[in-house]
């Protein structure tokens, strides 16, 4: 038999048992196989599989990296189960046939792993690597990455609790006071999942001389820690805006929504990398820095179920009644007025003049008060538009 001395095999790959699976979590069973195929017969001495996972942050200025390990596993595969051994203790791999050597292991229990992540200055990476040793030749290796996503249930009391804050800023023009702007905002809970709508209640006041614009955005903050120093990158993910607010006016959002886009969950438990989310509500002020208010968000994997949230919602209502009691309910409209058909069509005024304001304090010679001439009344032959066509757009309100 002529043995091959080539450096590579026709097939050397790691395959997972369920290639359609997108991620794994703590405690899951991960299994697969290492597949080998040779063009010509060759000798093998050892085949082993290692699984590893670690967080790494690259320090560019010092050209070095920092790592924290979360997973380490090693298994030697039994070549003798499928291949024949020679007198030197090596195994003969015949040509033209694919051999599969199985492996499997269980991921660590909850609390030991961190979700996969890839960012500008660091990553959390998990992979399976196969090492193939051959007599008097270089070791061959191949690897396959797999994703880890740790479950994060937002149906926890602290994540179902509302978040609220307020902030104001004095505006100046050439060091001369020019009034102030303020924001008060609240969201019903802190925990959300992909595709859910965040309902925002907010009040914006503008007493400066400029026209301001209220806006809101979901932001992500990526923090990398190395050598005691941290670097933070902020990314805006989605945004909404409101109407312009002129001087001396205020505006209110009641139930204005912003949808959570497709996001990686909040990254928890990693010493080197943090990924936090926040709802940023702010006022754009021409010629001045923005007034920014941030409410914390936690992006989870287990969506809101509504079970057990009644107590949380009731407590949040009690805590927020005092600060939000002055908000008019734009979503609830008064009952419809009486039908036009109930008005008598022979209605007439008693004279050419009808008193409008009897206590008018103008000209003292006008003893009968302020009058207006009543024009002839003409009633429409058709019914007016339905009351359901009322414009529900919230008007700007004056600041008192």
Task: Give a structural overview.
- This protein has 400 residues and is mainly β.
- The chain is 5% helix and 46% strand.
- A hairpin with a 6-residue loop joins strand 10 and strand 11 (140-145).
- Residues 344-400 are annotated as: Disordered.
- Homodimer; disulfide-linked. Interacts with TXN/thioredoxin through its redox-active site. Interacts with transcriptional repressors ZBTB16, ZBTB32 and HDAC1. Interacts with DDIT4.
- GO terms for molecular function: ubiquitin protein ligase binding.
- Its main location: cytoplasm.
Query: In whole angstroms, how far apart are the ends?
Result: 98 Å
CATH architecture of the largest domain: Sandwich
**Spatial extent as radius of gyration:** 35 Å
Separate helix tally:
2
Structural class: mainly beta
| Number of separate domains | 2
Indicate the CATH class of the largest domain: Mainly Beta
* CATH topology call of the largest domain: Immunoglobulin-like
Shape type: elongated
Helix content percent band: under 10%
List unreliable stretches of 5+ residues: 1-6, 308-323, 325-383, 387-395
Query: What proportion strand?
Result: over 45%
Strand segment count: 23
Instruction: Sketch the topology as an H/E string, one letter per element.
Output: EEEEEEEEEEEHEEEEEEEEEHEEE
Largest sheet: 5 strands, antiparallel
How confident is the prediction overall: mean pLDDT?
Answer: 80
């Amino acid at each position: 038999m002529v043995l091959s001395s080539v450096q590579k095999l026709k097939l050397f790959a790691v395959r997972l048992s369920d290639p359609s699976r997108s991620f794994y979590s703590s405690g899951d069973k991960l299994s697969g196989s290492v597949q080998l195929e040779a063009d010509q017969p060759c000798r093998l001495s050892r085949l082993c599989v290692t699984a590893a996972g670690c967080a790494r942050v690259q320090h560019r200025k010092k050209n070095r990296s920092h790592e924290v390990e979360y997973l380490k596993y090693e298994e030697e595969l039994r070549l003798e189960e499928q291949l024949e051994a020679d007198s030197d203790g090596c195994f003969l791999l015949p040509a033209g046939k694919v051999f599969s050597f199985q492996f499997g292991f269980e991921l660590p229990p909850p609390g030991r792993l961190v979700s996969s992540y890839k960012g500008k200055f660091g990553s959390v990476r998990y992979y399976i690597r196969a090492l193939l040793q051959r007599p008097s030749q270089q070791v061959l290796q191949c690897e396959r990455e797999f994703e880890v996503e740790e479950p994060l249930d937002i149906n926890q009391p602290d994540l179902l609790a509302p978040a609220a804050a307020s902030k104001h800023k004095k505006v100046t023009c050439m060091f001369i006071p020019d009034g102030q702007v303020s924001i008060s905002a609240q969201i019903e809970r802190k925990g959300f999942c992909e595709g859910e709508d965040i309902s925002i209640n907010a009040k914006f006041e503008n007493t400066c001389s400029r026209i301001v614009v209220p806006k809101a955005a979901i932001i992500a903050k990526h923090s990398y820690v190395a050598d005691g120093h941290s670097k933070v990158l902020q990314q805006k993910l989605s945004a909404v805006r409101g109407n312009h607010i002129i001087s001396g006016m205020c505006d209110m959002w009641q139930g204005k929504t912003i949808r959570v886009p497709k996001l990686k969950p909040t990254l928890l438990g990693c010493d080197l990398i943090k990924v936090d989310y926040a709802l940023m509500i702010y006022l754009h002020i021409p010629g001045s820095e923005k007034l920014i208010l941030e409410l914390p968000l936690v992006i989870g994997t287990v969506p809101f179920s509504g079970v057990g949230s009644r107590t949380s919602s009731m407590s949040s209502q009690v805590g927020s009644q005092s600060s939000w009691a002055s908000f008019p309910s734009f979503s609830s409209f008064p009952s419809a007025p009486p039908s036009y058909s109930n008005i008598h069509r022979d209605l007439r005024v008693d004279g050419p003049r009808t008193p409008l304001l009897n206590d008018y304090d103008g000209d003292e010679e006008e003893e009968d008060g302020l009058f207006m001439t009543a024009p002839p009344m003409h009633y429409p032959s058709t019914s007016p538009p339905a009351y359901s066509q009322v414009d529900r757009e919230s008007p700007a309100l004056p600041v008192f």
